Structure to design on (236 residues):
């Protein structure tokens, strides 16, 4: 399942299989009913956020600046310091590998740091419970968050976001930096000098370049700090 592809590294050889994408507009509908908003998994997360803000609904605004689709965000419980998508989910419609469609209720779902129990073949749709707030106030808050993100993340370069999950109580970026890897380059890929948990790429970069940097960080951080860095990015 391909969402927006913003958390994926596809090997140079490509994918030996079928890649599905919910690109038909039928999968991108967004509907508001009171404080409940329902979105197709193919919708972009930024559309869902802007719809909710226009309707004066707060909650998802903390996800501002996270690229990708609603389906991808649900799969990995996208979020940050101010909250994650999972805490607002009330129902999720899924399609199983045997072709059954069913709706999972809130009490059948669990979300944690970059984890969701939505492990069926396809997430089709989800509903979110939000709360009313003045759209101008929400927008002001979003603007602040966005400015902070722009100051700390290398958003002008191509990347797949954070490469590694933060180990419990630690920052993966800090560990990579302390291992002396900030700015280290392989081919046209390098650990960002703005945020070392981002690998930024320039034209001509290959997946192999990125994979070499990943191996290097895992080896150095393990030997210097005894910490095993776990991937956040999915490698296909
Ligand atoms: C600049 C930048 C900043 C980022 N900042 C953040 C951040 O602050 N917080 C954060 O959590 N992430 C962040 N990310 C990572 C990424 O944007 C999120 O993980 C995003 O939610 C991935 O969504 P996507 O649609 O692009 O998923 P993809 O990358 O396409 O896929 C990710 C995974 O989800 C699965 N998937 C996608 N759609 C479906 C579906 N409909 N059904 C079942 N499985 C599906 C895929 O199979 C894959 O395993 C950032 C990325 C970038 C490039």
């Amino acid at each position: 399942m391909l969402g927006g592809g913003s958390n994926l590294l596809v090997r140079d050889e490509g994918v030996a299989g079928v890649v599905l994408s919910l690109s038909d507009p039928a999968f991108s509908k967004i509907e508001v009913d009171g404080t409940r908003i329902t979105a197709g998994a193919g919708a972009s997360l930024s559309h869902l956020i802007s719809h909710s803000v226009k309707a004066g609904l707060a909650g998802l605004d903390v996800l501002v600046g996270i690229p990708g689709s609603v389906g991808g965000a649900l799969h990995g419980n996208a979020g940050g310091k101010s909250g994650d998508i999972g805490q607002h989910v009330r129902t999720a419609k899924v399609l199983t590998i045997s072709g059954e469609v069913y709706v999972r209720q809130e009490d059948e779902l669990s979300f944690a740091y970059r984890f969701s129990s939505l492990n069926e073949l396809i997430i089709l749709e989800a509903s979110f419970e939000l709360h009313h707030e003045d759209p101008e106030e929400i927008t002001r808050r979003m603007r602040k968050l966005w400015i902070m993100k722009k100051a700390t993340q290398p958003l002008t370069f191509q990347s797949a976001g954070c490469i590694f999950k933060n180990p419990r109580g630690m920052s993966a970026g800090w560990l990579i930096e302390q291992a002396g890897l900030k700015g280290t380059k392989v081919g046209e890929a390098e650990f960002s000098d703005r945020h070392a948990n981002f690998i930024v790429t320039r034209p001509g970069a290959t997946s192999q370049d990125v994979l070499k940097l990943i191996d290097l960080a895992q080896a150095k951080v393990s030997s210097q700090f005894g910490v095993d860095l776990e991937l956040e990015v999915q490698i296909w």
Q: What stands out?
A: The mean pLDDT is 95.
